[in-house]
């Protein structure tokens, strides 16, 4: 069964050369747009805007999209001008074409599928639902990584190693201490990302063009929001101030910042593990990372910390995508921010890269870490524990003198 898209979709494909993702490459976004249209159709019928036949046909067409049908009918570039109008029209045209077949009467993309709606409230509503759905991926992956570090903390609870501050020898601690700190940090940023998306549960449907609700029946936004809450199982609520919801997208900057923070924290830990595994002869050599592939095309038996480096590189892209969101949020003008498409694209990258980094780090590196580096015990011998204890007992100057004389004799 093939449902054609219409003329506005074709114009969007022609006007915006594809650079990266299409609208259809983000099935969650397509599904959530269909949920908005389905909910609106039900409320429009209750309000006397849609007859029963067209309501049922629109609902059925949307349900087919939710089941994965017509997936090839959303070819417009994800990043597009016009604040997402092309994407909204793409959905309207696909739903109208299919609903017309199902109903046996004409169903118009604007008059029926888009009744009482505007791109300006449907797009950000579907966008919020999509972010709420997709954030589960990175949050789950980050928590998996935290659990991997918890297991390593138990496995190496009694394994001491040299601590370092300013890259100089300090006092000793255990590998268990180190990995418990890793787990705590990753769990904290996972919770932060999850919390940041909570503001997106407030959706602007019913605002129509600029927030006034012009063209929509009384109570339309509240009733559609209730339908969407039932469809998604999310605790959604209508935006308290719809003018604000259309004009200011700072909640997305907060989500992007939380994603960037998670990436920075994960990359810092990866960089530390990379440093502690350096060597095996000329570096720190405290621990060993899994040898997942050849480290060199010219140097035999070389092992590189490739997973750590993968995590670090993805963090760079995540931070760049977070900056993209910041720029897009800042570029909203007057009653509407039309930069939403690039925000969707950037958040998709952030979520996908966080998920890939956390899962790969946990499964291909952390799970196989061993504190059996060739220099761990030798490095540990340089720990300053005894001198700190001497300082506490006899004073800093006496301990400094003892350290200096001991170094001179050595």
TrEMBL record:
Residue ranges that the Swiss-Prot or TrEMBL entry lists as coiled coil: none
Entry's Gene Ontology molecular function annotations: aspartate ammonia-lyase activity
Domain of life, per lineage: Bacteria
PROSITE patterns: FUMARATE_LYASES
InterPro entries reported in the protein's UniProt record: Aspartate_Ammonia-Lyase, Fumarase/histidase_N, Fumarate_lyase_CS, Fumarate_lyase_fam, Fumarate_lyase_N, L-Aspartase-like
Keywords on record: Lyase
One Pfam family in the UniProt entry: Lyase_1
GO terms for biological process, alphabetical: aspartate metabolic process
Fumarate lyase N-terminal domain sequence ranges: 32-320
Any GO CC annotation of this UniProt entry: cytosol
Alphabetical list of PANTHER family matching this protein: ASPARTATE AMMONIA-LYASE
Protein name: Lyase family protein
Native source organism of the sequence: Amycolatopsis iheyensis
Lineage, top ranks: Bacteria, Bacillati, Actinomycetota, Actinomycetes, Pseudonocardiales
């Amino acid at each position: 069964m093939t449902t054609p898209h219409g003329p506005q979709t074709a114009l969007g494909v022609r006007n915006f050369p594809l650079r990266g993702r299409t609208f259809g490459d983000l099935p969650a976004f397509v599904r959530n747009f269909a949920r908005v249209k389905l909910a609106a159709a039900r409320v429009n019928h209750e309000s006397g805007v849609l007859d029963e036949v067209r309501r049922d046909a629109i609902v059925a067409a949307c349900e087919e999209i939710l089941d994965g049908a017509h997936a090839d009918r959303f070819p417009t570039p994800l990043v597009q001008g016009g604040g997402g109008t092309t994407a909204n029209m793409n959905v309207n045209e696909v739903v109208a074409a299919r609903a017309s077949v199902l109903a046996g009467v004409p169903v118009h993309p604007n008059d029926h599928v888009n009744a009482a709606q505007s791109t300006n409230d449907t797009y950000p509503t579907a966008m919020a639902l999509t972010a709420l759905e997709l954030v589960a991926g990175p949050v789950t992956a980050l928590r998996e990584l935290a659990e991997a570090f918890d297991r390593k903390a138990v496995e190496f609870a009694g394994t001491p190693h040299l601590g370092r501050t300013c890259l100089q020898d300090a006092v000793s601690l255990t590998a268990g201490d180190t990995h418990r700190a890793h787990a705590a940090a990753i769990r904290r940023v996972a919770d932060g990302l999850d919390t940041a998306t909570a503001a997106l549960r407030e959706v602007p449907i019913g605002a129509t063009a600029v927030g006034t609700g012009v063209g929509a029946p009384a109570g339309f936004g509240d009733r559609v929001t209730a339908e969407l809450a039932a469809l998604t199982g999310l605790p959604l609520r209508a935006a308290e101030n719809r003018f604000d919801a259309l004009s200011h997208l700072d909640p997305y900057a907060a989500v992007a910042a939380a994603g960037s923070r998670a990436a920075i924290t994960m990359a810092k830990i990866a960089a530390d593990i990379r440093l502690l595994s350096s060597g095996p002869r000329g570096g720190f050599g405290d621990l060993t990372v899994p040898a997942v592939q050849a480290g060199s095309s010219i140097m035999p038996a070389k092992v590189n910390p490739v997973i750590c480096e993968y995590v670090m590189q993805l963090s760079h892209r995540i931070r760049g995508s977070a900056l993209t969101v910041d720029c897009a949020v800042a570029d909203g003008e007057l009653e509407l921010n039309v930069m939403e498409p690039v925000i969707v694209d950037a958040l998709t990258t952030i979520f996908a890269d966080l998920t890939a980094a956390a899962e790969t780090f946990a499964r291909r590196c952390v799970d196989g870490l061993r504190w059996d580096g060739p220099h761990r015990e030798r490095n540990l011998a340089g720990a300053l524990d005894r001198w700190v204890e001497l300082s506490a007992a006899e004073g800093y100057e006496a301990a400094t003198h003892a350290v200096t004389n001991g170094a001179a004799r050595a």
